[in-house]
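Session log. Operator J.P. requested a structure for one protein chain; no other inputs attached. Running the standard single-chain path with token output.
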Amino acid sequence: MGITFHANGDVTGTHAGRFGASGTVLQTVQGFSGTKTVTSTSVHGDAIQCPASVSITPTSSSSKILIMFHGSWMFGNENDAGFWLLRNGTIIGNSTDTSANNVAFAVAGQYANNDYSPNCIAFHYLDDAQNTSTHTYTVKAIGIQGQKTSTNRALAKGANSQNLPFTWGGSEGTSTNESNAGNMVIIAQEIKG
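Structure written below.
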């Protein structure tokens, strides 16, 4: 039996699963949120989850999953933040430098001392599919200035300079007639292994 190409994009027939070169995009899924959230934080408390998340069900355990993320954020005034990528609630892709005070997927700083100037962060990560079960990818973030406990260094937890709000999706406050809102997008692509 030969290989048949269908109008809907399906390929069937003997060895149809071998069709397509390694690196071919098999599916793309997007999670989006335009909702601004302002959440209080506490010393050594849990990081705040981004309102945008994405779920993807790989068609093969040998596939790769490319994660692309962009989000608007703000934490207090001129405070650094740590960002963690999670698959099904488990942190993935953290820095391997375990001697640092804060170990995260990414870190970013703020350079404006006001509560109406938000920031943005963007990153990518190539994950292994591992199996054909549904994977849900989320991002968490929180302020990292100050000391973290040694047991919390790599966890999605804050440092001791908390008690400030963390904002996803724009600015915390307003200045005269200025307030800001932004989107959060997370995209998952299954790539043939």
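Operator note: The CA atoms of residues 116 and 174 lie 5 Å apart.
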